[in-house]
Amino acid sequence: MRNDFLWGGAVAAHQLEGAWNVDGKGPSIADMMTAAKHGVERQITEGVQPGQYYPNHHGIDFYHQYPTDIKLMAEMGFKTFRTSIAWSRIFPKGDETEPNEAGLAFYDRLFAECLKYGIQPMITLSHFEMPYHLIEAYGGWRNRKLIGFFLHYSETVFKRYQHQVNYWMTFNEINNQTDYTKAFFMATNSGLLLKPDDPEAEALMLQAAHYELVASALAVKLGHQINPEFKIGNMINMTPIYPLTAKPQDILAAQQAMQTRYWFADVQTLGEYPSYMEAYFKRHNYRPDITTADREALVAGTVDYIGLSYYNSFTIQADELPTHFIGEAETIPNPYLKASDWGWSVDPTGLRYSLNWLNDHYHKPLMIVENGLGAVDQVTADDQIHDEYRIAYLRAHIQAMQAAIDLDGVDVMGYTPWGCIDLISAGTGQMSKRYGFIYVDQDDQGHGSLRRLKKDSFYWYQRVIATNGQKL
Ligand code: P53
């Protein structure tokens, strides 16, 4: 393990800040999402509707309580803290020329608080929280104009925070939308609000994704012009897809499924669409608006590192696929793996496999910017949280990461487990799906004192960091 290994934790603005309409912040897509639970999808309402419950409106009140929370992270020894900037705090509608100074000032304060303890902020530019106005007025990322709005926002924050922030990434889990049958992914990635089974969904997704990829590449180039020291990455959801058997058709189906999910990383890392995607566009008569200037931008804006989230793996079988792999609905249980209470397989070996897969394909440094176990925690009468299941999950994944580093020679820059402080789940809007080392007293209806408590995993992770991963 390198001595400058970036141990830390990760969150996203919309899942913890709250203060959704404070100090000039505009509504984002996350402010239109109701609460749900395992097996029930969050609704995305048209505007904020009376009588609906929107958990992201209050988050865990990090907007006001961040000094306490950053202090606790410093106590654990964090070297880095990954969060996002809420785009709609800076540009409330998204298409303004002038930014909202009160929004910029909040991140001045937050980053200063981190740096006070030697914690480097690591910033996602767009994490499921685009300004809602950009969806209403422009149709989201189906519109090429979004590239310009995103770049203006990126330039504003790159310039403002160039002396506080060195690590950036562009779009969170940009490849979630490959599952274009899921309203949640289409809305959170691209601001595409579609009717169920819209026949245009795949074509729209491919067009929106292309504009995001161009915006990402242009932002990388611009960031390097503003500060050549910046390290700017992409962010890929890494869920490796295994074949159920050694049957050649299963092997091929799994390979094709991997292509379907990971071509985004090719574009962002190698600067061009892989041949199978060009062939796919042709075969299906898709004509995404891809210009020569776009292709030049992609080449000129390749990323410095690959950011990835890793939670679980998928398994498929050729005979079970309707036509081809689209998303989770086509996956089958892996007989060798157990699953979490939310049905996510637990597969630490898959992390070592994923790190090697990404290293084999792209030869770039990797940064694990999310990993963790969503679980229900119990608080004892004396305010303890004995979360040994979380420790077991994280320990096994850190061991797998160390094997990739030490035995396979993969260059991993750091590790920031997800939801280092309990927050609102992205997928379900629940509070009870907890990932944190720090417990936050709040229930699924938004009731609770918001008091922060240290779980057993807090002390465990503190020791992991203090020993640079030697004492697990
Ligand atoms: P939650 C699935 C569904 C939604 C978001 O997820 C996801 C994933 C991951 O496979 O992505 C990330 O809260 C995301 C975070 C999110 C985290 O996974 O549904 O970047 O915003 O909170 C965990 O349990």
From TrEMBL:
Gene Ontology BP terms: carbohydrate catabolic process
Q: Which InterPro entries match?
A: GH, GH_1_N_CS, Glyco_hydro_1
| Annotated Pfam families | Glyco_hydro_1
Q: Name one GO molecular function term.
A: beta-glucosidase activity
Which key words are in the record? Glycosidase, Hydrolase
Instruction: Give me the Gene Ontology terms describing cellular component.
Output: cytosol
| Superkingdom per UniProt | Bacteria
Q: Which family does it belong to?
A: Belongs to the glycosyl hydrolase 1 family.
Protein name, please? 6-phospho-beta-glucosidase [Lactobacillus sp.]
User: Which organism encodes this protein?
Assistant: Lactiplantibacillus mudanjiangensis
